């Protein structure tokens, strides 16, 4: 459960109605119950429910656990349709991504940028769901880039493209394994994922010119959220 207030190092309070509902309806919590509490900012611990009222819950807290290690991936995600954005943000947060740039590309519908799902509090809700699911506590940063550009950073740059013709060499291929089989990486990665219609040739060329290499998960054309989830799970 995510606590929204650390009142002291040994005490946490939950006042968010959605979390309170979760506490009552999913955990069916009673005073005296113990559960893991995540507190944004990198703290996680065991909480004992001391009081449960209509509008708040109070826990005594024992900080006992470091948050899971971050997966050092900067995700360049071509802005997906709003419903898919919500799920993608939740999944990639649960898988440990700490930086996300929502990118405009030719095949991103302009109307997606007007979606209420892009409001800060909505984005935060999806990230929090992912954190709570994974019992992680470090909130990813999310920024927007409304003009297409391949980012160049001091990271392994990988461009996700479904296999077509000759499979691209997997940039994160394990020596001795098939080229297209990604291995667990422990170095920073920049991972670019296209929109529903894919990147246009011009964009792929720009990525390649910036040093990106193709990485693919075979010939199946996967939904954005499936593709990104599958690849991140292999990196973790
Ligand atoms: N027809 C489009 C194409 O060929 O690029 C399909 C786009 S797919 C629905 C959306 C994005 O998910 C792609 O741009 C790519 O980044 C990623 N993706 C989907 N399937 C993939 C696969 N098998 N391997 C790697 N990336 C994949």
From TrEMBL:
* Catalysed reactions, as listed in the record: uridine(1498) in 16S rRNA + S-adenosyl-L-methionine = N(3)-methyluridine(1498) in 16S rRNA + S-adenosyl-L-homocysteine + H(+)
- Domain named Ribosomal RNA small subunit methyltransferase E methyltransferase is located at 68-235
Could you confirm whether the keyword Cytoplasm appears in this record? Answer: yes
Annotated Gene Ontology MF terms?
A: methyltransferase activity
Q: Does the keyword S-adenosyl-L-methionine apply?
A: yes
Location(s), subcellular = Cytoplasm
Q: Which domain of life is it from?
A: Bacteria
- Coiled-coil spans are none
Output the SUPFAM superfamilies linked to this UniProt entry: alpha/beta knot
The Gene Ontology biological process annotation of the record reads: methylation
Matching entries from Pfam families are given as: Methyltrans_RNA (PF04452)
Give its E.C. classification number.
2.1.1.193
| The entry's keywords | Cytoplasm, Methyltransferase, rRNA processing, S-adenosyl-L-methionine, Transferase
The main place the protein resides is cytoplasm
Q: What does this protein do?
A: Specifically methylates the N3 position of the uracil ring of uridine 1498 (m3U1498) in 16S rRNA. Acts on the fully assembled 30S ribosomal subunit.
The text of the family note is: Belongs to the RNA methyltransferase RsmE family.
Protein name in the entry: Ribosomal RNA small subunit methyltransferase E
Q: Which organism is it from?
A: Cobetia amphilecti
